[in-house]
Structures are given as structure tokens and as C-alpha cells.
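Lecture 7 notes: from sequence to structure.

We start with a single chain of 597 residues. Read the sequence below before looking at the structure.
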Amino acid sequence: MKPLRIYLLVCGLFGLRLSLAAEITPALQQEIDRAPEKNAPVRALVFLDEQVEIPALEQQLSAMNVSPQQRAYAVITALQDKAAAAQRGILSYLESLAAEGIMEYQSFWIANMIRVETTPAVLQVLAARPEVALLDADPLLAIPAPAAQQPALPVENGAEAGLKLINAHKMWEMGFRGEGRLVMNIDTGVEGTHPALAARWRGNHVPASQAWFDPAFGSTFPNDCNNHGTHGMGIIAGLNPATQDTIGAAPAAEWIAAQTLCAFPHLSNTILAFQWAMDPDGNPATIEDMPDVIAGFSDATLIGCPAAIYHTVLNAVEAAGIAAVFPVGGAGPAAATIQGFGNINTSLVTAWATGSIDGFYSPLLPVTSFSSRGPSNCGGSGSLLIKPEAVAPGINIRSAITGGGYAVWSGTAASSAHVAGAIALLKQAFPNKTGQELKLALYLTARETPADSAAHDPGEPAGETTGEDHNYGMGLIDVFAAFNYLQIPVGVEPPSPPGDFMLYPNYPNPFNPSTNLGFRIADRGFTRLEVFDVGGRKVATLVERELPPGEHAFQWDGRNEAGEAVASGIYLYRLRVAIPGAAGGEYLQARKMVLLR
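Now the structure, written as C-alpha cells:
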């Protein structure tokens, strides 16, 4: 590994400014106004002006084709170095206030921010400091509740039907069960003694501080205040070795967890858990301690689009190589009801939001009524606006609960846990792929369910019944299809969709400075040809209009939509065609190409 080289290259990426002046958000102002006394302490999150420019750093790392270890080291040290340098002055001021008994604070590095608890007068002073960009509330989050629940029994030699719906069993048959991979959830905790989970807690062979995070009480052994986290972890990685009762998609993976939704469930504790996950052992040069995937939660108190700084937090997690996935929440079936971080749409798969389908009662696999619907409340256009990214089973899912027992629950958290387990399986097969690359494979290979393809859903072209939409996203995840997609080398032709519809290999490939992209469509339709980077962020739109049937060709000059030359690396080009009429539909195909400067 060459950490010094990576570090030197990222030193210049510290100049991003979020705003020109400090702002106290309406949410924080409400907290101040509600304070029982004028000088009563108020919790707040203080975001500093300068942040590491994560997209530029990630683009640089992708162009250099760094190893997973080098990637994590570069991202973590860039964030830590920036926070240490930028916070020096303000931390000195806060320390002086702490000595006077009117300040309690905690510094963060996952974003350049500080959590404080102090008087409204001090908050006004902080807002006036030149290095401060934003002051926000630190709200209390709610414990998620399942849509339905009932007790269940263990099943000897069993394997849950939902795991088979996502084709996890096909991965098991090839020997991919999550061995050597590490999964995590941020939730109500996990029961560390549960027979389906106890044997594979990472804390069995490393210090507990590297495998369990409890910011409220500092407990040293996994526990669960609510069952929610235990049920989710069971779906990700649950297996009772004595009975071979398989409830998890990646039953051989190890797990770690953070308990942030029990006592004092402030938003800052969840952000702190994401930060801990990036470096549990305190050594940025190691990645064995870092999870491959984090299953988050939805929260009804986080309404609308999270502020831009929270996008920065998730971008940092993803840039380090970790996949983060979230449930859409249970506020459906109304439109634009995605809850919490799942609204964020900085790329096709960040943040990943998972909807819920019924794979228990109906062979048509319809979206559940409670599953929150898109579009994203963060705006955007095209695929960035559409939420969820995909769906997974969420009705009558049997998994672990506290007391060593089992229960059947319904909810979108169960759906999201299926995605987390699928990512662990893919990571075992492709250990050098980033979390975003693995999520992108699941996104591109998701399949429409019978119920999805039978009806027009919001987000689909007018009058059409197929295509990405605000109920199902791209469709039901298929981990085996994603595995096959990831096996296709750059330049090799992937399987084609049915009909007279074809996206051709680009030529030349690799290329510099430009390449030709050709395709054939059978009928007149609204056509989009777009270029994305390996993290799913859109780089360029080459065509976005109605085209007649026949052969078409366009050229990409290796520049983004701002006209700037992009870095060397692997890029994805994707064709979407919406054909109108009763015999129409939406066709989608994607390929990979390599730019070499």
C-alpha cells in the first residue's frame, strides 16, 4: 500500500465551501424558542464552511485504480486532517466555554462539524464566526415500528422464501455465503446472545470496542432495546449453526452493530455511528474492521430532503468503499413519502432506498400498501428523481428477535436488510469492488415483478406499464443476476433485451479522447443516452429526445455536462427508450467503457 502518495494527492481537495454566511435553520430556531428559560442549554449541530470535496476525491481515486485499503486510507485521512486543521480555532473557543460550565461539545471528522449543547446566546456567537456555515437542530429520532408482527418458530434446515426470491440460494450453491465479509446495522441494537447471531459477532475475536458501538451508555456487549435491530440483522446474516435454520442472505458473514435509537436517540449519534463504522479500530490503514455494507433505518421525524451536509456524510461513507442502504419507510401509498436519508440522490444508488413487495400472499409480487413512494424530495430529474432504487420482500419475514426467539414481521426495514445481505454475497465474490459498484449492479439487474409490469405506475412514461417507477424503482433485486453482470469484462457484450433493440459496444474501447456509441431501436420512442461514473453519478447526457426507429450513433468526447474533461477510468453508458402505445414499453440496457488519458 502507498498511503503517503494518496494522501499527498488529496491535500488540494479541501476547498469546498457550503455557504457564504452562517445560518440558523428553522428547526434549530424552534428548539431555541421552546427552551423553558432564556439561558437553558440547546443541542445543535455546527457545520463548518470548508468540507473535503468528496466527489473530486473519489473521482481521483477511481482514476488511479487504488486498492480498497488505499481508498479507505485516503478518504479517512483526508477527512480527519481537514477537521483537525479547520476546527482548531473554534475548538479552542469551545474549550474555554466548557471551562466556564456553559458548553458541552463533541468534534466530528466524517464531516467538518461539531455537536454542541450550550445557551442560545452562545449559538448566536457561533453563527457569527467566519468559519461556520450552518447551525442545525440535533433532533430525537423515533424507533422504527414494523407494519405487522407475530411470533414464529425456528425451522430446522430451513431457508426463508424471501431469500430465494432474491436468488440468494443460487449464490450459496456457488459457495458464496458471505465468508470473510463484515456487515453492520445502525438501529436499536442486536441481541448478541441470539443462537442465530452469537457465533459470528466480530467481537468474539477482536476488542468489543471494534464490534459494538453504544454512544449513549458505552455498553460493551450487543443488546437490543426493541427487537428491530435484531430482526434486521437476522435477515442480513442470521443462521443457527446447530439447526441450520437460515434466516439471513449472507449466513456466513460476521457482523458488528451500533445502537443509536434507544436512549437519547439524537441524529448526531447516528452520524457518529457512521463515523465509527469507517474506522472502528482507530487505524485508517486497516480495512478488516470496516463493514462492507451498513443497513440504516427510516425515520418519520426526518421529513423532506435532508440538508446538504447530510449528503456529505453519506458521500464520505460511500467514498471509503462502504455500501449504505436504507428502507423507504412505511408512509405509503401516497406519493413523495420517502422518509429520512433514503431521499438523498447524489447518484443513481446514493442514497439507496429500498421499497417493499409482497412475496408471501401474492405470486404477482405487488408493492405493499405501506411502502413509501417516490419521487425523491431532493429534486433532480430522470433516474435521480425516481425512488426507490429497487424493492425486496417485506411481508411476513421470519427473523430473530430478543430472548433467542423468532417473529414474522412486515416492513420496509426487512426489505432493506435483504439488500444488505445481497451486497455481502457480492462482496465475497468481488472483493475489490466498491459498495457503490455492487449497488449499481443490483440496480441495473433488478427485474420487474408481474404486478409491476401489468400496471402503469407513477414515474413510468404516460400510458406505459414497464420501466423504472416510483413504486418499484428498477424492480425486485436479483443477486444472482447482479453477480453475472459483474462478471462481464469491459468491452464484452452483455445479454441483450428481447426485440429489435440493441446497445452496441462503443468503439474504440479503451479510448482517448472520444468514442462512438451506437444503438438500434425498433420503434419511435423517447430516448435517453447517458454516461455515468462507476459510483452511479451522471457525467453527461448525450441524447434526450424522441428518435425514429433504426440505427443511431453519437459521440462522447470524455467531458462532463460542464464541458470539463473527466479523469481516466471505467464509465457506464446507458440507453433508455420509452415506446408509446399498447405494444410499447420501456427498454433499458447498459455497457461499460474505459477512458485512458
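The two ends are 24 Å apart (CA to CA). Keep this in mind for problem set 3.
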